[in-house]
Amino acid sequence: MNCRDLADLLGEFVARELHAEHHAAAQEHLDGCPHCPRLLHSYMMTIAMAGRLQPPAVPAGLLDRLRKHFGEQPPAQA
Amino acid sequence: MVLAGGKEIDLSPDTILNEYAPRVYAIARRMLGNEQDAEDVTQDVLLQMLRKADTFRGDANFSTWLHRVTVNAALEFRRKRAVRERNLTPADVDDIPPEARHPSPGRHWAAPPDQHALGRETQRLIEQAIAALPESYRDVYVLADVEGLPNAEIAAMLGLGVPAVKSRLHRARMMMRHALAPHFEESPA
User: Fold this and answer.
1) N or C: which end of chain A has fewer CB within 10 A?
2) Of B39, B112, B177, the CB nearest to A59
3) What span, in angstroms and rounded, lies between the C-alpha atoms of B130 and B31?
């Protein structure tokens, strides 16, 4: 396995979806390659940070319109 | 509470505004890439939810059903927008920067502080990179890595096969990595 092969398989490697022999070959490449562990680290960080994103705030105007629809009074302005 | 698909669903205004609206808005905002369109879709989905709650069959959980309705509404909105703008370019699947196809390993990335919530600047950078993804990749990325949905569910929502979802997700991650690298790579020693 070379670096390009590993890059193509990273998604399945991190999801542990590769067949055992492919997983082992990928791991063996990672153990001996001076570059690919950095690629793996940044790939995994990309995934981890996406999972930690906070949802965007719902605009106040939209909440007010929805409240109006439900017949509720919008909250008083502070 | 209403009974649908054999399950009780809370459709009180409080729950809709505080629980469902943020979830629907987050998906619509990230898929559509702008606030105004996301507001329109969110309002539409929530009102649709009230009208069509009885079509919820109870074979999935309500949250999955709500995701599905939201994704459908966002895709439909985007289709109409494309027709309005006479921009019928169907897919942007080949619009991938070469660096994302054949990535260089780059330098080591510095981890953001290990807090539950990302800092405001980190959050902004990631949202910006998501908004810059081609739509067909952005959809899969948002649903998989941001929303945490399983590939099979995403495939069903988007009308794709699971292998296509996996392939797009991998490409999207590579594009995200490429976009974020300048901000997270450590300086050379």
Assistant:
1) C
2) B39
3) 9
**B109 in contact with A, Cβ within 8 Å:** yes
- Kindly report, residue by residue over A27-41, the tens digit of the pLDDT: 999 999 998 999 999
Comparing A53 with B64, which gets the higher pLDDT? A53
In sequence order, which ranges of B53-134 are alpha helices (DSSP H)?
62-84, 98-101, 120-131
Which chain A residue has the Cα nearest residue B35? Answer: A59
Closest CA to A13 of B140, B170, B144, B168: B170
* Chain centre distance of CA B53: 23
> Alpha carbon B123 to chain centroid distance?
15
Residue B92 tokens, joined: 């942007």
Q: How many CB pairs under 8 A join A and B?
A: 109
Average pLDDT over residues B46-70: 78
Question: Is the C-alpha dihedral spanning B64, B50, B11, B4 positive or negative?
Answer: negative
Compute the residue count for chain B. Answer: 189
Q: Which of B14, B17, B37, B142 to mutate to test the interface with A (most CBs of A within 10 A)?
A: B17
Whole-Å CA distances, B150 to A51, B3, B28, B165, B169: 13, 27, 18, 10, 12
Pick the more confident residue, B52 or B127. B127
Of the candidates B18, B111, B2, the one whose C-alpha atom is nearest the C-alpha of residue B52 is B2
Kindly indicate the confidence band of residue B176, based on its pLDDT and cuts at 50, 70 and 90: very high
pLDDT in tens, B64-102: 888 999 999 999 999 888 777 765 554 455 566 666 666
